[in-house]
Amino acid sequence: MARMKFLCDADRCIDCNACVTACKNENEVPWGINRRRVVTINDGKPGERSVSMACMHCTDAPCASVCPVKCIYPTDDGIVLHDKDLCIGCGYCFYACPFGAPQYPQVGNFGSRGKMDKCTYCAGGGGPEAPGSAEEYAKYGSNRFGEGKLPMCAEMCSTKSLLAGDGDIISQLYEERVEKRGYGSGAWGWTTAYHEDVKK
Amino acid sequence: MTAFARIRFAALLLMLFGLTTASVLAQTLGPDGAPNPTASVTNQRTLLEQAPRIQGRIDIPDVKASVLMQPMGRTWDYFHEVLLHWGAALVIVGMLAVLALAYLIMGRLRIEAGRSGEMIVRFKAFERFSHWLTAVSFVLLGLTGLNITFGKVLLRPLVGPDLFSDISQIAKYVHNFTSFAFVAGLALITVLFFRDNLFKRVDIDWVKQGGGFIKSKHAPAGRFNLGEKMVYWLSVAAGLLVSASGFVLLFPFYGTNIADMQIAQVAHAVIAILFIALILGHIYIGTLGMEGAFEAMGTGEVDINWAREHHDRWLAEKLEAEGRQASATPAE
Ligand code: HEM
Ligand code: SF4
Ligand code: SF4
Predict the structure, then answer these.
(1) Per-residue b/e over A73-100, b at no fewer than 16 CB within 10 Å?
(2) B277 CA to middle of ligand 1, Å?
(3) Quick one: CATH architecture of B125-322?
(4) A118: CA distance to ligand 2 center in Å?
(5) DSSP string over B10-69
């Protein structure tokens, strides 16, 4: 079975935030929650690079490992899903996540956090809701994956910087690009997320 | 030279080399042969060698989201799931084992002279209230905190994921709110018992005489003996640290960054575990370990013979202050 991954080719990203908007729209993400974001390094200086980042759907996901109620788990495709019915909003997954992916609605007093929300790879939720159902959509957003489609962010990327799909295929795509143009800043986050890097 | 300076130095050398030899080696060329001045400058591997996190500018008003990557998350995961689990289990089970051994070897320390039946006030109502406010909130914090650490291993298999999640949700709120009662109790205890816990010369004698553990010797003590003073000072210190780190956790990212939050969690967990071990020892001596000790915090009054055996200096001062003569004499 294919192992799904994200790869952001930062040498192509133009910080247009189309992926962010696509995600918000596709999943009706509430105000204040950002499942995907674009971070610009060396802003305004030589060597400026923008990287689109969301949950990387890690191998041996650290968020899943630290979760005190064990509500995060990987699917057979390597997508990391979670069950909001079980989440207690402790915030530990954010401390463990190398990519700042988990998000929390602010509820009540102090910094108290509501149920965690994060990128689902547009694959719906990890709870008991039927795949593709209205209940699932309300809690987790769209389930494009169940319809055989890839995440909306990557599909909408204006420069095809953000790649989603089978890890072997997207890494090959990236390697071919590096080969052709002669340079590449690397597959951002891959060694941390997947314990392996692209070959170029 | 720092690693960064070394890299800069190497880059400079490379540039000079490129200039002098007019070679294309130091430049990265595009497929059309034109030099690309910025290509491969910002490489994620190089950035992570320079700093533990990669941070940049972001369009949303959320400072913590500007951290693109923090591989330390995996290290924190290792701390929480491996080091903390095994360390905490070792400390807590180890402490219980030591106490069980103490009970088997020494048994319950009796009032040697037997009870006189005559009582004397040791802790006033307000002092007892402060103690029990702290004690009850400590136990609640300890249990609900340990649920975060060990619940998924110990409790979840017993009650199932759904009920365990409900319990943990409640436990989280109990932990968060009980913290205020704990801090209040800790502040009261710190102030009320401060003076009697200052170290005195008699503490040295107390140690020399075996701290009351050697039956043939009499260890002299004021209101609190050295063992109790240690419990007091360690508890005040641990209480302060656990509260400070706890409030950092309670107000996440209020002026802190991701590394601060991880450090606060590590500090909170490590100190909490050591604190729990200390208090287990304290509970043991106050209940099972010593006859006549519990009533001091229970009813507030102790038997005069108990006081004479464990806190002779304090008893003498107390009797004098009350203008009272102890009728009970040691049964020798
Ligand atoms: C002012 C007092 C305290 C505050 C504000 C506080 C706050 C917190 C917070 C916010 C957490 C994170 C988990 C959660 O949201 O429930 C936590 C975890 C924890 N607390 Fe406290 N706490 C306090 C005192 C204590 C005390 C006195 C103990 C020990 C008896 C304790 C033991 C623990 C433990 C064991 C954990 C879980 C550590 C882990 O596995 O990550 N806490 N505390
Ligand atoms: S990127 Fe973060 S949230 Fe996503 S799987 Fe990895 S650790 Fe979990
Ligand atoms: S916030 Fe929810 S999903 Fe994240 S670690 Fe806590 S319980 Fe698990």
Answers:
(1) ebeeebbbbbbbbbbbbbbbbbbbbbbb
(2) 15
(3) Up-down Bundle (1.20)
(4) 9
(5) HHHHHHHHHHHHT-STTS-B-TTS-B-SSTTSS-HHHHHHH-SSEE-EESSS-GGGGEEE
The answer to whether B181 and B133 have CB atoms below 8 angstroms apart is yes
Mutate to test the interface with A, among B15, B41, B42 (most CBs of A within 10 A): B42
> Which residue among B57, B58, B70 places its CB closest to the CB of A98?
B70
Query: Residue B46's pLDDT is what?
Result: 82
**Nearest CB partner across the interface for A47, out of B30, B38, B176:** B38
Q: 3-state DSSP helix/strand/coil percent for chain A, to nearest 5?
A: 30, 15, 55
Residues of A in contact with B147 (CB under 8 A): 68
Kindly state the tokens that stand for A48: 């400026």
CB proximity list for A122: less than 8 A, separation 6 or greater: A26, A27, A141, A142, A143, A144, A145, A149, A150, A151, A152
Surface-to-core class of residue B105, CB atoms within 10 Å of its CB (0-12 exposed, 13-18 middle, 19+ buried) = exposed
Chains A & B: contacts with CB separation below 8 Å: 164
* Residue B328 in contact with partner chain A when CB distance is under 8 A: no
Residue segments in chain B with a per-residue pLDDT below the cut of 50: 1, 9, 11-26, 331-332
Radius of gyration (C-alpha) of chain A in whole angstroms: 17
Q: What distance in angstroms lies between residue B175's CA and the mean position of ligand 1's atoms?
A: 7
The DSSP code for A28 is T
CA A156 to chain centre: 15
What ipTM goes with this model? 0.94
Dihedral sign from CA coordinates of A34, A36, A40, A41 = positive
pLDDT digits (tens, 9 = 90+) for B277-311: 999 999 999 999 999 999 999 999 999 999 999 99
Which residue has 């208090």 as its token pair? B279
Q: Closest approach of chain B CAs to the CA of A161, in angstroms?
A: 16
pTM: 0.89
Question: Class for domain A4-194, per CATH?
Answer: alpha beta
User: What DSSP string describes B89-139?
Assistant: HHHHHHHHHHHHHHHHHH--B--TT---S-EEE-S-HHHHHHHHHHHHHHH
Domain extents in chain A: 4-194
